[in-house]
Design a protein that fits this description.
By secondary structure, the protein is mainly α. It is built from 14 helices and 5 strands.
Length: 373
């Protein structure tokens, strides 16, 4: 019965995670009007599912860490504790989703983990050094790094673009000019051979006129849009790589306690639950992140997404449990800081949500464990 409850709680956690986190990677796509809500949602769900599928290959250390190994005393871990962690995390994230606030699955699970362990064995059941160095430091540092990186990188990229004279109509074109005369047998003959292909940079309309409509062009705005889609997808992919093992780790730990190993089928079920939650319940958080933090243009969105993807993927590779929410929101905060267009009220509300997530998860983790034990 306890194992069945753990399965239900874990899949509710995966659903809540998807509902709150699924849209974070593509929030800038919708916010900058590069994509419609539905287009952004489809892209986010596909990239998230792909990241979930491959996460076990790249983030095994995260799975081990969130199973409680090295944080909670071995004798204190049981299926009741794992169920309490999953249930407390799911409730915490679900409440934030209902309130349309982006919150951190990492913070909710960390709080639930510590709360359940404390309820089970008191302070001695927790390795506080590991909690401080492996959890607290990266969780506190990651949003600061994101804000600083985005606030510095965007003005630099903007200045480089302006210095190069690139705007949304700029096009790199390859085409052939009008025919020119060539000499045949000593006599001049006009319009027998076309000019050699040439490369030019200029306004797209000018290029079409110059090459009489026969050209291959790389439009600057289209290039930015493609990079924006790719960067948004990379954020969704990185989030799934970072988050899926944290959720699946609860079932991994249960399997270890029962003397069996977690099959790859569990990862597929977690991935499906995350995708379903993101597809069906992500609109509220999407609106907050896309429209209420700051106004965005495509270039700003690309910068925020690149900063987020690099920080989250780097953390996953190092086994550091950073919060994708904090990093992605921090990047958008940084853009708002650089452009001085951030909505202070929305940002303050999000920060309050962040401050309450961990203690709420802790309290629910302790309470749920007491009810189950």
């Amino acid at each position: 019965m306890t194992l069945l409850l753990l399965l239900v709680a874990t899949f509710l956690l995966a659903w809540s995670n998807g509902a709150n986190d699924n849209f974070k990677g593509v929030a800038t796509l919708w916010g900058s009007r590069t994509a419609s809500f539905r287009q952004a949602l489809i892209w986010a769900t596909a990239c998230t599912f792909l990241g979930s599928v491959v996460s076990v290959m790249f983030a095994a250390e995260l799975a081990s860490r969130f199973s409680g190994k090295g944080v909670i005393a071995d004798g204190a871990i049981d299926t009741s504790m794992l169920t309490a962690i999953a249930m407390a995390g799911a409730i915490t994230i679900f409440l934030a989703t209902v309130l349309r606030m982006p919150t951190s699955t990492t913070h909710a699970l960390t709080g639930a983990l510590v709360g359940a362990a404390w309820a089970a064995g008191g302070r001695s059941a927790i390795d506080w050094t590991t909690v401080g160095t492996k959890f607290a430091q990266p969780l506190l540092l990651s949003p600061v790094l994101a804000i600083v990186a985005a606030a510095i990188l965007y003005p630099l990229l903007r200045r480089a673009r302006l210095a190069a004279g690139v705007d949304r109509r700029t096009c790199l074109c390859v085409g052939s000019g009008p025919p020119r005369p060539v000499a045949i047998g000593g006599a001049a003959a006009a319009e027998i051979s076309a000019a050699a292909p040439e490369i030019s940079i200029g306004d797209a309309e000018e290029c079409v006129e110059r090459y009489q409509g026969s050209l291959f062009g790389i439009d600057a705005q289209r290039t930015v849009d493609v990079v924006h889609y790719l960067s948004g997808g990379s954020v969704c992919f990185a989030r799934a790589v970072n988050d899926t093992p944290k959720i699946a780790a609860l079932l991994l730990a249960a399997g270890m306690l029962l003397g069996s190993e977690m099959s790859t089928g569990v990862l597929w079920l977690v991935a499906l639950a995350m995708a379903a939650g993101g597809w069906l319940q992500s609109r509220g958080v999407a609106d907050t992140m896309s429209r209420r933090i700051t106004d965005l243009n495509p270039g700003q969105g690309v910068t925020a997404n690149l900063v987020t993807a690099l920080l989250v993927l780097g953390a996953s590779r190092l086994g550091l449990p950073v919060s994708t929410t904090h990093v992605s929101c921090g990047s958008i905060f940084g853009i708002g800081l650089a452009t001085r267009s951030g909505n202070a009220r929305t940002i303050a509300t999000i920060l309050i949500t962040w401050l309450t997530t961990l203690p709420l998860g802790l309290a629910l983790g302790a309470l749920t464990y007491k009810l189950l034990a």
